[in-house]
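Reviewer comment 2.1 asked that we show a complete input and output for one of the modelled complexes. We chose the magnesium ion case, as it is the one discussed in the main text.
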Amino acid sequence: MSNKTLVALAGQPNAGKSTIFNMLTGARQHVANYPGVTVEKKVGFFSHNGTSVELVDLPGTYSLTSYSLEERVARDFILKDSPAVVVNVADASNLKRHLFLTFQLLEMGVPVVVALNMMDVAESRKQKINPSLLEEKLGAPVIPTVGRKGTGRKKLKEALAGEASRHDSSAPMRIDYGPLENSIEELEQKLEGQVQANAPSRWLAVKLLENDRVVREVVKTQHPEGQVLLEQVDEMRAGLEKQLEMPVDQFLEQRRYELASFIAEECVYAPEEGKATLSDKADRIICNRFLGYPILIAVMYLMYYLSIELGYELTNYTWPALAWVREVVAGLLPAEGFITDPMLRSLILWVVDSVNALLNYIPIFLILFAYIAILEDLGYMPRMAFLLDAFFRRYGLHGQSTLPMVLGGVYVGGCAVPGVMACRAVPDERARLATILVVPMMNCLAKVPLYVLLIGIYFAAYKGQAMFFIATITVLMALTTAKLLNLTVLKDKESAPFIMEMPPYHFPTLGNIIRRAIERTWIYVKKITTVVAAVSVILFVLMQFPGISDEQRTDLETQATEAQETFLAVAAEHEAFSELDTAEEIDALFDFAGRYKSARMGVSDEDVAAAIDADFQAENALFFSVIKPTRGDDAAKAVNRAYKKLRRVRLTVRKEAKEITINNSFLGTAGRWMEPASQYAGFNWRVNVALLSALAAKENTVATLGALYQPSEGEVEEGAEGQDNLAATSEGGTATLEQRMAEQESGFTSLHALALMLFMALYPPCMATTMIVKVQSGAWKWMIFSLVYMIGLGAAVSTLVYTGGSLLGFDGIQAMAWFYGLALAATVITGLFKPQPTDI
Amino acid sequence: MRWKRRRKHGQGFTQETCAKDETPALNSLRTGSTAKVCGIRAGSNARSRLASLGLIPGSLLLVVANPGIGPLLLSVGESRLMVERGIATKVLVEQV
Ligand SMILES: Nc1nc2c(ncn2[C@@H]2O[C@H](COP(=O)(O)OP(=O)(O)O)[C@@H](O)[C@H]2O)c(=O)[nH]1
Ligand SMILES: [Mg+2]
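Response of the prediction step:
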């Protein structure tokens, strides 16, 4: 039964290809990249009358030349994977232009089914279209569709099946190239049977005359007399150009265009072509040189507001759910030990914490992706590109780089993961890679806690300025870097001229938006959590092993036993508590107390609290009276006091154990090992450890610093433990961490802090981003490059600031001002370099 | 190198040679003006992209927005196109 049919979906951008793709496949699809390139490949499945069909969404292309990566990818797929049918999605309301691509598909000799989409738009423009006449002219089935409403799904599937199972070779429409026909025929004869290209000789002949470099290469390598033939072609072309008085490729284009207008005129009655539409009127405002920018800023601001601020609010509701999951998991694991916990418990909770830290962003992502889907559906993205292209182009980026940069966090608070994901919209390979490489420099949400922490301690008098500095300096550095990358490593990458269609505004549909928001969030969750979970295991090992030495453990155990004995002595004095007489009982007591605390966490309703109390009291009245002595029960009070003392000792011992562990760990060793070099950037080993741990997720930085700068007494246990809710780390947690850091690092100055912040800004992307860079750039090479150059740049900048600043005797704020000036100058100067000519 | 055209191609599709020398380029047109393309001096990559979007010698166009810097927004047939300024300087037009 499993005869699988491969079907490709081709069409110009905005023809509704993705919509038709979804219409045909429903939810069964997956997204990857074409091998080795930055172009996304979407594959979906459906079955029709027992035949299962694999549908591949080709990149949207206006034409099928070899000039752009997308066009080559689309063309190669048709040639190399030989799909049974190519569905050509064409915009009925703009038929003439879309036929241009249809012809090229037909010329390639593949069976084509035309999905004549946007019939509703054509209708609303009062165009009358005759699909059967078109079908006759093209010699290929034409199915009218309205992708948005799902109209034409069945007919399209039937036509597909019909075309796929047809065995007689059809005679598709043949374009008459007039004065070139003789030469084409001559070449055809020379090529016939000599080249394995899966394409008709006529197509190869036309492409040779067009001077298509890929086809030339194929002929050169495969044809027995390739070199000679190519020379003949060149001669032929030169002769034709004289005769035609224009380049041959231009003549071919014009010929196709004429035929397209001819067919369109026959098949479409269009009363009001060229009239200013509502869209045009809107564009007069939205693309206006003065009004356009305030609107752009407002749109961006709203995006930040809705996703970051509102989404953040929502995490207050979703975090308890994640925290609950953690508690449930914790409950299933072996209980805590007095000094250190069982390995299994620490490891699993560590992984859960790491994954939770990222899952916590889900509400933010849902809102963000929904908002982007709205902007995409509306058609605002190309307008944004239009407004900013001139500026970005100066730095080797592209108008379409706007969205990735904004998502990455142009001002404070984005995330590089969706930012890098959005890079696929950049239709120019060089600019796309440049964007992928600089987006991780933006200020992602997770870098913010460290900024807040350091600014709070060392730039307290200049909070606003320092925040502004860090938010804008990253943009300056990103622009400069993008330009430098363009002039160096990316120099030979392909760059396309900025000639794009501006699709008319569409009204977004709710279903579509929700579907896409969920789809993209799901991709994020799937890709990210697996990677983060895996990396967190590695990190755990690096931070836990080789562990505490026997000597150190004995020392801690002595302290612990002493305290336990003191407590047991107090308990023994009181008749009611004499059952508390072993170390096991003490562990059980702490387990009980821990569970009670988490049960009561966040409960403010008195009735609920009373119910929880009752539950715990029922479970173990004795333990309950130790941790919550009733009023007037003096014995319980005394034991409770002893318990509190014991708890304090326990905390201290545990923290000490943790500190020793990190100290001894591989990461700690690495941190110390790096100190001789990193000291020039102002980083001591503790900072090194924190930065190393940030590789997994940036949230780790502050959490690790929290673990390294041990709190003194009586602090809440969970605070320093790990990746708490970000809000807690940046507000509750850091308030005390600030003091601790200031206290314990007396040698640390504002200059150190500045160097650290700049390093953080440029620091390599977290693992999640790194993986996405790999996915979007399609190559390990670029992933590794992005890691290496960012570490290098970060180290260089922070060394410059710290060492340079120290030599000149600057304090942090002076160095900040100087560095800002330098960066600004660098940005202006690099911007003056002429952009590479894009016109090849 | 400039290409002169005197020929007529196909059905109802005429092309004229650009008037010599003082032919203006697309980038100099103001918002709201209409023009006819008479020659494209760009290289084949840009030219083929323009052609696939419907901008070839003989096409009529309306300048929807020319902000003075950055790309231009054009209306060509049913399409609205953004064209980089650098390319626009290579598209020769006749005002109509
Ligand atoms: N009115 C109308 N809009 C459509 C139709 N098909 C797609 N669209 C919209 O056109 C826009 C572009 O569609 P999309 O599938 O993303 O185009 P692609 O670039 O070819 O993948 C989206 O906003 C769609 O909702 C249709 O048949 N009628
Ligand atoms: Mg699409």
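Residues 1-16 of chain B have pLDDT under 50 and may be disordered. We note this here for comparison with the apo prediction described in Section 3.2.
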